[in-house]
């Protein structure tokens, strides 16, 4: 209780600090100007026939594998949970292997990114990844996001962007909310598997600014024998002034969720099956749980203050934020392997207060015929973290396994210079320095340590074109991810707090046919240390260095103003660089991804149909055990009723495929099993199924 009070006091103190900043910004001349905004350079952005995809213009792109997806494109995708918004990014796969309130699992560029490691996510500039998290490094919970408020998603892949730091080796996703809405929104949804959801959002003009407020409530049970009972409540309040050239904003976000979870179960239990004729056989059905008490609850609250100003030759941005977050997660990964009497359920507890900010200044200079853009930036963040690991039974604590306190601070500076030699030849070079400060204490052993670590990473790129509809890109650079600070307490540990990455890619973008955008990129990424999933406690741990190679081919074809087709193909390979007799395949590394869709919006009707192929993966280093591939189809169909109303039907898993969301391979022991040969249990494939065919209806009213 004392730690909760301390965290809320810090959060309240942060509010008291940030609110006067809003006044300061307001009094410093950031009022809405009476002069009209400067005309936008139409050559810098291309909108494809209102179909919601925005390709960065030739003046903006630094690599082949970056882009933007706006709200219209997101609306055309059937979304079963908020994390699936990330699948709009070419090559990304999103799964859910536990209760709905737990963070999603992400796959991209040969990575099983677990819950966000090596994939940086942010909302309106505020980072979402949590370092030194109780469940996994870089834990990224997107459940507090309200999809209807998202204005656009920016994505970048690779290590070539100086403004992206920790967790961004595979890529980065930036979600941005609307500052105001043209009409108020009420949306009511309901469907099978116990799903219901209500969203309300409204904008009001107050003084010279806009007030936007929204709330979301949802409930979901799922197909599980023991329902998820996932209850989620989200809220948002934002006030903004000015425009894209000059303005400021302040935002408050809140989230609360609680759920039951059905975790992955071994295939041998599924083969036995569950029957009342032999209740003690230890068998399970597809939607059963071995431990009926898994689940969790989580809360999040944050405040953000932002200001910006842009002139013809310069731009300045500043942002400050403070976040309170907590999670209690109950999971049983091995059942009765470690404790044959009480079971192996554990509670992972994370409570933290975060404060941070960033600022950047850009200046454009003209040296004769050369155009030089210079950007300087600083970023900082401090996490006050309390984590705990407990052995539990039916969510009651039996034993304290770990209690840690961490103060983790990061200070970053970066610089980038971009030169346009001609309209067809552009290059950039930059450097980023990140310094980490770790203060870690184990409350059970009274062991503590203070460490400092830093990394400097150069980045560069070359852009040639356009030539007859083709642009060519060459990029290279270095990045990193931080490791869990709690590992610094391990005696004689050789694990570095920072794991370096190096990457390169060559690619092209083509616009040779009217309405067709196509990109092809070949990439490589080297990691000094691989983070590997551990089934014993559900966390990740550092492993050997690895190399990934791959190719991505993305296409968007607007056949007309109302019909669009998109096709994305990604192929990658991941191997350890250091030989080990057990094998050199990186477990869970994604190999092949195919995604495609057709969307339309004509007269009063709209809809889309989408397919996603998730290829097989090595589950162990030898590649002797592999996951089963899956193919899922989703459908959306709807009708506009005037300008104020629409109805919509979404069908998920249209073919009712009996596929798996995730699969793992490690030893477990069921309740009625005798001890086995694999560390006391039995090695087996553990699986968590996709949802069966389910439908959702929605009614949206705008006024």
From TrEMBL:
Q: Does the keyword Magnesium apply?
A: no
Boundaries of each TonB-dependent receptor plug domain copy? Answer: 68-172
Q: Which domain of life is it from?
A: Bacteria
Q: Which UniProt keywords apply?
A: Cell outer membrane, Ion transport, Iron, Iron transport, Membrane, Receptor, TonB box, Transmembrane, Transmembrane beta strand, Transport
Instruction: State where composition is biased (Basic and acidic residues).
Output: 30-44, 57-73
Any one Gene Ontology cellular component term annotated for this protein: cell outer membrane
Identify the stretch(es) annotated as Disordered: 29-73
For this protein, the record's InterPro entries field holds: Beta-barrel_TonB_sf, Plug_dom, Plug_dom_sf, TonB-dep_rcpt-like
Any idea what this protein is called? TonB-dependent receptor
Cellular location(s):
Cell outer membrane
Membrane topology listed for this record: Multi-pass membrane protein
A Pfam family of the record is Plug
């Amino acid at each position: 209780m004392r730690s909760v009070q301390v965290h809320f006091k810090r959060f309240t103190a942060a509010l008291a600090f940030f609110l006067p900043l809003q006044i300061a910004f307001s009094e410093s001349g950031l009022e809405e100007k009476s002069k009209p905004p400067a005309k936008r350079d139409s050559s810098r952005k291309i909108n494809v026939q209102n179909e919601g995809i925005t390709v960065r213009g030739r003046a903006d792109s630094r690599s082949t594998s970056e882009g933007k997806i706006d709200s219209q494109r997101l609306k055309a995708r059937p979304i079963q949970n908020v994390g699936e918004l990330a699948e709009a990014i070419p090559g990304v796969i999103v799964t859910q292997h536990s209760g709905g309130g737990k963070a999603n699992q992400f796959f991209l560029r040969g990575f099983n990114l677990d819950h966000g490691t090596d994939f940086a996510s942010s909302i309106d500039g505020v980072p979402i990844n949590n370092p030194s998290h109780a469940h996994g490094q870089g834990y990224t919970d997107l459940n507090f996001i309200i999809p209807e408020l998202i204005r656009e998603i920016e994505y970048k892949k690779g290590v070539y962007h100086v403004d992206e730091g920790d967790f961004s080796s595979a890529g980065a996703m930036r979600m941005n909310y609307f500052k105001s809405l043209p009409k108020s929104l009420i949306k009511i949804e309901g469907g099978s598997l116990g799903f219901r959801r209500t969203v309300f959002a409204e904008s009001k003009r107050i003084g010279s600014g806009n007030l936007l407020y929204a709330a979301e409530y949802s409930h979901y049970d799922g197909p599980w024998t023991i329902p998820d009972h996932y209850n989620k409540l989200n809220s948002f309040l934002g006030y903004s002034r000015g425009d894209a050239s000059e303005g400021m904003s302040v935002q408050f976000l809140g989230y609360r969720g609680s759920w039951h979870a059905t975790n992955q179960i071994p295939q041998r239990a599924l083969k036995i099956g569950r029957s009342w004729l032999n209740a003690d056989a230890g068998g399970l059905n597809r939607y059963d749980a071995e431990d009926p008490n898994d689940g969790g609850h989580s809360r999040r609250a944050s405040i953000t203050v932002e200001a910006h100003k842009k002139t013809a030759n310069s731009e300045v941005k500043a942002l400050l934020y403070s976040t309170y977050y907590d999670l209690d997660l109950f999971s049983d990964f091995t059942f009765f392997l470690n404790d044959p009497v009480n079971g192996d359920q554990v509670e992972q507890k994370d409570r933290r207060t975060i404060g941070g900010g960033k600022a950047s200044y850009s200046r454009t200079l003209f040296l004769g015929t050369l155009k030089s853009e210079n950007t300087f930036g600083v970023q900082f963040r401090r996490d006050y973290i309390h984590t705990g690991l407990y052995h539990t039974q039916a969510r009651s604590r039996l034993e304290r396994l770990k209690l840690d306190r961490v103060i983790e601070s990061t200070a970053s500076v970066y610089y980038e210079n971009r030169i346009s030699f001609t309209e067809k030849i552009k290059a950039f070079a930059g450097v980023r320095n990140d310094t980490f400060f770790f203060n870690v204490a184990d409350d059970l052993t009274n062991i503590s340590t203070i460490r400092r670590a830093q990394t400097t990473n150069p980045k560069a790129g070359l852009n040639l074109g356009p030539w007859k509809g083709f642009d060519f890109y060459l990029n290279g650079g270095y990045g990193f991810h931080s490791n869990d600070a709690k590992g610094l307490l391990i005696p004689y540990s050789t694990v570095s707090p920072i794991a370096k990455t190096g990457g390169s890619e060559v690619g092209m973008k083509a616009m040779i046919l009217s309405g067709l955008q196509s990109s092809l990129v070949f990439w490589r990424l080297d990691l000094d240390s691989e983070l590997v999933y551990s089934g014993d406690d559900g966390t990740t741990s550092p492993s050997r260095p690895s190399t990934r190679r791959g190719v991505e081919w993305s296409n968007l074809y607007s056949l007309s103003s109302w019909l669009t087709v998109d096709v994305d193909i990604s192929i990658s390979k991941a191997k350890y660089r250091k030989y080990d007799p057990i094998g050199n395949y990186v477990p869970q590394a994604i190999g092949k991804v195919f995604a495609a869709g057709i969307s339309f919006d004509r007269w009063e009707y709209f809809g889309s149909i989408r397919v996603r192929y998730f290829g097989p993966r090595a589950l162990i280093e030898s590649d002797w055990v592999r996951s089963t591939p899956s193919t899922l189809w989703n459908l959306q169909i709807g009708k506009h009723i005037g300008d104020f109303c629409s109805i919509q039907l979404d069908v998920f898993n249209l073919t009712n495929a009996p596929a798996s969301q995730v699969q793992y391979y490690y030893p477990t022991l069921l309740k009625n099993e005798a001890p086995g040969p694999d560390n006391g249990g039995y090695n087996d494939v553990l699986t968590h199924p996709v949802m069966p065919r389910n439908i959702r209806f929605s009614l949206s009213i705008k006024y």
